[in-house]
Amino acid sequence: MKAIMYNRTGDSSVLELREKPLPEPGEGEVRVKVVVSGVNPTDWKARAGGTYGALDGWHVPNQDGAGIIDALGPAAPGASAEGTGLEPGQRVWLWDVAHGSSEGTAQEYAVVPLHKVVPLPEGVPFDVGASVGIPALTAHRALTVHDGAAARLAPGTLGDQVILVTGGAGAVGHAAIQLAKWAGATVIATVSGDAKAELARKAGADVVVNYKSQDVAEEVRRLAPDGVDLIVDVNAAANLEADLKVLKTGGTIAIYAANSSDEKLTVPVRQCMAKNARLQFILTYTVTDEQKTAAISAVTAALADDALGVGEEHGLPLTRFRLEDTAQAHDEVQQGTVGKVLIDVGE
């Protein structure tokens, strides 16, 4: 079987197309024929050395993907394979595959722990399944961190909330808009240009503010005089001053990204105190098992409701590569391409 592999960190030239034996699933594992692999910023950052440092052996990149179950490993003692709800031939989506493992989704077959294999609802394309992992699970956590929030989103759980999503044309911002709208919120999004504004509208944002040409605080306060309940923020270092101007007293700013590993955030303590503001930092890999389970359940329900579409018509353009061109796919994400980068692995 073909796989993209690397045994040292560095730029995308360390990625090699190699042949490897077809792996057998062990106890509590599933072998999935990967159809589409999704690429996220964390994938190229891990490859570049931001996660592993010096590598011990070969690694296959990419956390997210979608495909078809090919084989089930032996059930754990006292359990049955049938009890998992998974079976050969079933369409599934995958999350965090490469986290804590040397096996990612940039290969024809991936052996994955049972709990990271989720049935893909009927009619949902593999492209969508390969796009929801890190972005949608991160967005779900960001949308459930404020006081009194439901642990698991569902239609109506955000019905009285006004939410600001900064960077509404990014993958996490896109998922946050879609999930918030599915849960009933009013959503304001910020973007840097007209083309991105159109994408945020297609994702479902009620109002879009161009932060390059408009005063964000002034526009948001005009639209939400009482302030916003929650801010899902992609760049808190640049946005915090404006965020605090529009945040409702008792509101939360959910921060899920940084421009560099050593980026610093200067926090105006008095302003935060005056707002009783919560600054909640998020990394999807280190949330609790309960939080991850709730996110997976909610995202699957949203998929079944056709609430997480991808593609130009849904506000998330797709850029596609072949498996052998995975290095180019990583470079595309690193260069900040708008939309989602996917790798076509199988049929």
Helicity level: 25-40%
Main beta-sheet annotation:
7 strands, mixed
Distance between the termini: 14 Å
What oligomeric state is this? single chain
Radius of gyration: 20 Å
Structural class: alpha/beta
The string of secondary-structure elements, in order, is EEEHEEEEHHEHEHEHEHEHEHEHE
By CATH reckoning, the class of the largest domain would read Alpha Beta
CATH fold-level name of the largest domain: Quinone Oxidoreductase, Chain A, domain 1
Fourth-tier CATH superfamily name of the largest domain: Medium-chain alcohol dehydrogenases, catalytic domain
CATH architecture of the largest domain: Alpha-Beta Complex
Question: What's the structural domain tally?
Answer: 2
On the 0 to 100 scale, the average pLDDT is 94
Could you give the count of β-strands? 15
Number of helices: 10
pLDDT < 50 runs, ≥5 residues: 78-82
Q: Determine the strand fraction and express it as a percent band.
A: 15-25%
Shape field: globular
Question: Can you describe this structure?
Answer:
- The protein is α/β, with parallel strands linked by helices and 347 residues long.
- It has two domains: 2-131 and 316-344, Medium-chain alcohol dehydrogenases, catalytic domain (Quinone Oxidoreductase, Chain A, domain 1); 136-285, Medium-chain alcohol dehydrogenases, catalytic domain (Quinone Oxidoreductase, Chain A, domain 1).
- Helix content is 28%, strand content 24%.
- Strands 3, 4, 5, 6, 7, 14 and 15 form a seven-stranded mixed beta sheet that branches.
- α7 links the parallel β11 and β12 (247-255).
- α1 packs across α10 (326-334), α3 (133-142) packs across α4 (171-182) and α6 runs parallel beside α7.
- The longest helix has 16 residues, at 289-304.
- It is globular, with a radius of gyration of 20 Å.
- It starts with a strand and ends with a strand.
- Residues 78-82 have low confidence and may be disordered.
